[in-house]
Amino acid sequence: GAHCGAEIAGWPCARVEIADKPVLAARVLRWRSIPSRYVFVDAQADGEEWQLCFAVSQLSATALVDGALLRFTGTEEAARTRRGLRAWQCDRLVELTLCVPCDAAEAGGPAPPAPSEAALCKWFVRGACSTASCPFRHQFANEHEEATVRATRERWAAQRRAHEDAADPFAGGGGGGGGDGDGDGGGGGGGKKRSHAKRHAEFASWLLQIFGTEALRGGAGVLDVAGGGGDLAFELQCRNGVRTTLLEPREVRLDSRQRRWLRKQGEGGLGPYRHIRDLLDERFEESDEGARLLREAACVVGLHADEATEQIVDAALKYGRPFAVVPCCVFPRLFPQRRLASGGAVRTTAALCDYLLQKAPGLEAGFLPVAGRNKVIFRRAAAPPQPERTLAAPAVAYIPQSVSRAELRHAVQEHTGGKDGE
């Protein structure tokens, strides 16, 4: 189609045909993508901020720039996002203008507003922002925005009250919200609870208190499974002298704060923790190093390990090792076979904790003084191995993009005995 001839970052100001259904317009503030799946765009429209969701086949994140104008068709979701934004599921990108529209430029119209002028700070929405030079708004633009944020905060508070464990001695705090299901339970806390960001330090302190420093230093040390950025491993090994191995498939690097701390310690400490880029699965079990770590670990741990949580418990029971996990996400679609002793499905974090506790006698539950999912399922001491036990595996494995729809359907039918599965 026609364009104004201007280019931004190599992309022309392109215009395409208009659809035969109502078209909405919004100005891009920021965006993020889930590779090969979705592009989420925060955009300004009608004086407020929206969250738009596009499939990557409709919009590529590499084509976006700040201030770009999007025209699209879509359906508004019934519920707002956790940040209180109106959410739109976009079914078609009608127009993408990557510079000030030609007609606006000719008329001397203003450039798109900067994100700092348009966007409400998400941390302000959640309660407080600690960034002194935060570029986003810390005041409401109008009464509607204020009412929306107030309703969102009240909904988060109600969700926290509904999900609190009656046995939690640290319950009753405030903070950001969250929910069960396939996402992070998140949420803030107040009173006796520390910030969610302190969970690694608090869990490390809890492990030292429950198991003892000398016990954790025995054998092969602590095996931290699905430890993300390695913050728990750093707390245990670098700050507390407990040898720790991080089992995490992603690349992990020390941040500047951690490197600075190690430089100050000099040669006296254990140095950085060991990192093995792998998954806790049968292949890892069958490797010499994996089998040794599982047999000799002083404790197998997982903090918000997502899909690996049940695998950690199974591995510890199989090899007779002490363990401690803090469950968070449930992923009921990936593990539909989970059932409580009562026969009920496992769809909440509380149900997942009950499900893990029923796996073997002698398991205990405790709590961390942090906001968010803070219930710990653990076993204090080693026990006889259970070599017949197998590690839990998700019902849906990783599927490469090269797999065709027909091949996927055939694989599902084979897995489910000829019936279509979830």
What would you say this structure looks like, in words?
The chain has 422 residues and is α/β, with parallel strands linked by helices. The protein folds into 3 domains: 7-117, Nucleic acid-binding proteins (OB fold (Dihydrolipoamide Acetyltransferase, E2P)); 196-379, 3-Layer(aba) Sandwich (Rossmann fold); 396-422, no CATH class. It has 13 helices and 14 strands. It has helices spanning 102-106, 115-118, 122-126, 143-163, 199-211, 213-217, 231-240, 256-265, 282-286, 288-296, 309-319, 349-357, 405-415, and strands at 7-8, 11-12, 24-34, 38-45, 48-55, 69-76, 86-97, 222-225, 244-247, 274-276, 299-303, 323-326, 364-367, 375-379. The strands form 3 sheets. Strands 10-9-8-11-12-14-13 form a 7-stranded mixed β-sheet, sandwiched between helices. Strands 3-4-5-7-6 form a 5-stranded mixed barrel. Strands 1-2 form a two-stranded antiparallel sheet. A hairpin with a 3-residue loop joins β3 (24-34) and β4 (38-45). α5 (199-211) packs across α7 (231-240). The longest helix has 21 residues, at 143-163. The two termini are 42 Å apart. Mean pLDDT is 81; it is low at 1-19, 100-117 and 174-190.
